[in-house]
Specification:
Strand content: under 5%
Shape: globular
Radius of gyration: 25 Å
Helix content: over 70%
Distance between the termini: 33 Å
Number of strands: 0
Order of helices and strands: HHHHHHHHHHHHHHHHHHHHHHHHHHH
Structural class: mainly alpha
């Protein structure tokens, strides 16, 4: 079956190549001396991400699908020369790899993988499983613990995703919780917390985007009174951000919906099938799936006869969290400008990548030191396990680099620019928050980055909202709620699009840390994300256009609707397993 899918992939790619090669009359239209492609910012710019995403979902060949998207985008840029397109594709991948922030994420991921490798070989992970066994005795309790653990690592989505997936996986495997459900819990609690909490690594970026948009508009307007108002709004960007938090309908409802599925023990769609398979003993992963992390390496298995102490897993994880928090405080304090104060300002000015690197390195040192000093592993065995842990992350790192490369191609060909331009057409002010949410979701889905989506849309959405009459006078002013709704829609739509996209870095990291097949994670999470997004749009984003309706009422309505959806359309996967057992006994 897998060979057939590979052949399908090759045929589709070959067909696209022939079509592009036959499009020879366009070659004369392309001026190769120009820096920008003639397709920049046009509907053609949607083709590369759509090809990559479509092929990935059809063939499940993620690596080849992502490269196909990059290569086709490169062909548009260089004028349909296959050799130049291939060379440009490699240049894009090189550029994605040498990016300082990307290197930091890769090293952080590898270090955490190495730390987990030492914890596993030294018996610490098994010790944690045995310890939690006395508390998480059922599938429901195990999932509740997995959801609640997000609250302890709320400050960064990358750290949240990587630490929790790796730490929780042995426990959820023992309780027969599918890897798809673990990936969903991890993914749908990490970014929603990071985007909506006040003290996170996201807040500085978000506030800066709002501030820069208002400052730029103040400098460009010729109306002195309006310029004064806009500059006052820029100076109080943090207050505007705080006011927008209740309008983050999708992130808040996504967090609640994950909890609802656990408490009510209800699932639907592909997730129901995955949970039935796992609960009935059919395996925590689908037969024939390709997990993003290889957990079967011999260097990751505990040594027989050696003690399995939970402290050898708990202390490395705790050290990562403590050092990450200290690193955020330290880098934020040193980067603060005059007049800035408070914990929120410190975190907003922090360097999250430096903090996470320090933290992951410390975790590795602690993990190795514990098992060596206790003579559970020799130093050479500990290093071998550390390397084995990093080796298990190799597939995911390759996917991550390709996803970044595709993001680079979409930026180079103007995918985000085209989608943002759709907002500049005339439309009723009352539809602005809902439309912004939709555009942000499509942008994040196509480009695979929530931060990139916010960077693209904030400079467009904020000035457009004010030009249309939203937020005049800001707090207490006319249509202030619409401005807040539009701002929050950028953030909420970016997170939603990220959850749905197989080329998103957080989607890749979630499947990687949970050792789940990337496409299986996307297929099972997508229906849940779509349902929450539709409810958020219906009771939140659209009613946000009316200032007299407080967003809290929209959130309450959304919770009720999601509860009813699960109650009447969800099924308990464990009851199916019980029914099957009864039928077998009767037979």
């Amino acid at each position: 079956m897998m060979n057939a899918k590979r052949w399908m992939f090759l045929l589709i790619t070959a067909g696209l190549s022939i079509l592009l090669a036959g499009w020879a009359d366009l070659h004369a239209f392309v001026d190769l001396q120009e820096e920008a492609s003639p397709f920049y910012g046009t509907w053609i710019s949607l083709v590369p991400p759509l090809v990559a995403i479509g092929l990935a979902l059809i063939t499940r060949e993620v690596v080849l699908s992502l490269f196909a998207g990059i290569w086709i985008g490169a062909l548009f840029i260089v004028g349909f020369n296959p050799l130049e397109g291939t060379a440009h594709s490699l240049d894009v991948l090189t550029g994605a790899l040498v990016n300082a922030d990307h290197i930091a994420i890769i090293v952080f991921s590898l270090f955490l993988g190495g730390m987990v490798g030492v914890m596993s070989r030294g018996g610490g992970t098994m010790g944690i499983v045995d310890l939690l066994g006395s508390f998480a005795t059922t599938r429901k309790k195990g999932q509740l613990f997995s959801w609640a653990s997000a609250l302890f690592i709320f400050f960064d989505d990358y750290a949240n995703t990587l630490i929790r997936g790796n730490a929780l996986r042995p426990m959820t495997d023992r309780l027969k919780i599918s890897r798809e459900k673990l990936s969903y819990i991890v993914d749908s609690t990490a970014a929603p917390l990071a985007v909506s909490a006040v003290i996170t690594t996201w807040i500085g970026f978000e506030i800066t985007q709002i501030q820069n948009a208002l400052t730029g508009l103040a400098e460009s307007t010729e109306n002195a009174a309006l310029a004064t108002q806009l500059q006052a709004g820029a100076d109080n960007a943090f207050i505007i951000f705080l006011h927008s938090l209740p309008y983050l309908f999708y992130p808040i409802l996504a967090l609640a919906f994950v909890l609802m599925t656990i408490v009510m023990k209800k699932e639907f769609g592909p997730m129901l099938e995955a949970e039935r398979r796992a609960a009935s003993g059919g395996g925590v992963i689908r037969e024939g799936s390709m997990p993003a992390t290889d957990t079967t390496l011999d260097t990751l298995q505990p040594i027989e006869g050696k003690p399995k102490r939970w402290v050898n897993a708990a202390l490395p994880v705790v050290s990562v969290i403590v050092v990450a928090l200290y690193g955020l405080y330290s880098t934020g304090s040193s980067a603060m400008g005059p007049g800035e104060s408070g914990l929120t300002a410190i975190i907003g000015n922090a360097d999250p990548f430096a903090a996470l690197l320090w933290a992951s390195f410390t975790g590795c040192v602690v993990a190795i030191s514990l098992v060596v000093f206790q003579k559970i592993l020799t130093l050479s065995q500990a290093i071998e396990s550390w390397i084995g842990g990093m080796q298990s992350m190799l597939i995911a790192v390759v996917i991550l680099i390709l996803a970044w490369g595709l993001g680079g191609i979409t930026q180079e060909i103007g995918t985000g620019t085209y989608l943002a331009s759709m907002l500049q057409d005339s439309l009723p002010l009352s539809l602005l928050p809902g439309l912004v949410f939709f555009i942000a979701a499509v942008t994040a889905f196509s480009t695979g980055t929530s931060w990139g989506t916010m960077a693209i849309l904030f400079p467009v959405v904020v000035p457009l909202s004010i030009a249309m009459g939203a937020g005049v006078g800001f707090a207490g002013g006319e249509n202030y709620g619409i401005l807040l709704g539009a701002i929050s829609s950028v953030m909420a739509g970016a997170v939603f699009g990220d959850h749905c996209s197989p080329i998103s870095d957080t989607t890749v990291l979630s499947s990687m840390s949970s050792a789940c097949d990337l496409i299986d994670h996307v297929r099972t999470q997508l229906p849940y994300a779509l349902v929450v997004a539709f409810v958020a749009l219906a009771v939140g984003e659209l009613p946000a256009s009316f200032d007299f309706i407080h967003p809290v009422w929209g959130l309450l309505a959304g919770l009720v609707i999601l509860y009813l959806i699960l109650k009447f359309y969800g099924e308990n996967p464990e009851e199916f397993e019980a029914e099957s057992s009864e039928k077998k006994s009767a037979a």
